[in-house]
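Supplementary material to the annual report.
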Amino acid sequence: MGGSDRPGSEGLLGRAARALAIAGGLLLVAAMAVTVASVCRAAFGRPILGDTELVEMLVGVAIAWFMPWCQWRGAHVRLDVFTARAPLTVRRSLDAMAGVVVALAVSVLAWRLVQGGIDAQDRGRETMFLQIPLWWAYAAAGVGMLFWAVVAAVQALAGLGLLGSRPPHMRQPDG
Amino acid sequence: MSPHDIGIAMFVAVAVLLLARVPVGVAMLIAGAGGYAAIAGLWPLLNTLKTLPFSRFSSYTLSVIPLFLLMGEFATKGGLNTALFRAARAWFGHWRGGLAVATIGGCAAFGAICGSSLATAATMSQVAGPEMRRAGYSPALATGTLAAGGTLGILIPPSVILVIYAIYTEQSIGTLFVAAAIPGLLATAGYMLVVHLYARIAPEAAPPTPRVPWATRFAESRQVWPAALVFLVVVVGIYAGWFSPTEGAAVGAASVGLLGVLVGGMRITGLIESLLATAETTALMFLILLGAELFSAALALSRLPASVSSWVVSLGLAPVTVLAIILAIYLLLGCAMESLAMVLLTLPVFVPLMLALDFGLSPTQVLVWFGILVLVSVEVGMISPPFGLNLFVINALMRDVPITETWRGVLGFCASDVVRLALLVAFPALSLWLPGLV
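Predicted assembly:
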């Protein structure tokens, strides 16, 4: 927690993750605007057709685009309490292993989501009212998921000491 | 292994992964995936994973969460924290321990627009922390007040934890918000009373500040009215069914955003900071939600929750005893664990159990009442020494105060929490009367 001493947007990866998160934030603002517009129009008996579908797609993609930034910042909640007093070397090796576990899990998620998108395209799945092809949303979300996997993999490699320097999210002794 | 054993193994796996410093969401995801694969098979798991993440992210019901988070960030970056604290200071400042009372008041008001305890604690610390220190308040009282005040962020609706509880138990979000109103006000009053007693017992910890003329009080309160209006429209609107929770959150976020731009002087930098902070919190919550989804799906397949509840019922304990044990478990776990993950890990077992016990209430009443009790116990965990998360947030922001001081300062507030929890258990009407469930 505390925020201030966590990595910012240094390096290509950090800048890209930050840009994607801001883009996702704009999608969220767009979803907000669509909803507000729909509420206003509904007050006059003319709601926007399929507004919930738009909101679902926008927010779904936005959240996928938030993931790499959260990963980059090392913001995902961990249980620090029991290991905070452990020697630094123990914590570092645990973190290195945990990094690998996270990278593997995220890669599986990204792989399956891309596969799900390909399925959706094969079957021509569309949203009910607006008939937006579902794979568009999957493709956009897939960008976020794949990038999330890349960030996690880079962090895992760095945690194992394979990239020369320590990754920014592990640089300061946390606790 | 029988499905039961797999269910138990899943809990063990989560514990081991957590100790190995794997993030909470990923730990639940891995344990859930393992359990799912062991019971249903690997291919069904891989098939589920094709659609599960995106359908979680793109759920209309859950989209209320990022929107409420955005609203809270807009409130912070738009300077509402300062405005609310200044107004509370103008009204309460001359009381005994006035600045601390004002901090509690400001936190309560901010909590009415923000659904997160950590965000409220962090935001109000920036404004009220330096102010109390300048006025010569003791570090223990100042940091303890801020940590406790922060929990009003989740106790007073809108509350992200409550939203997730409502969605999980298929209860109305509006009903739970309204049910949380009286307990939230009780919390505010209780905290103010603690400050008052603290200042009475140790007057040197809270030097008096001068009384402010009435004209100034109203002048300082100008920015409070729009914020109060937003709160009323959002919470009442959701409860009365004028709009869905998502619509309410969108309207709330848009109006607080406008307020921030027009009154609070929020510009592009502030907007980008709000978006990035929302992105971070949203992402960490949805990773936990995703892990919890798979975990609870696998747990349901193992049928462990059903057996646990029939076993507990067969023990023939008084329902209140069982409830007390459950709440004690929450208080203990809450000292060490992230609140959202803790709630999501335990609900699959505790909700069927609560419904199986006879409290003389209807299922809806039980679920709403239990939701409020869970919320309060979770919140106590956030400020109980030594590990409460809020204590560390405050500690990170006010580095010159040793954490032991904060522990000392927060004890009184913890005591008031425990008293309130007991009251809420003894009198379900405190939670059920306002939403008209009694």
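Chain A touches chain B through 66 residues (CB under 8 Å).
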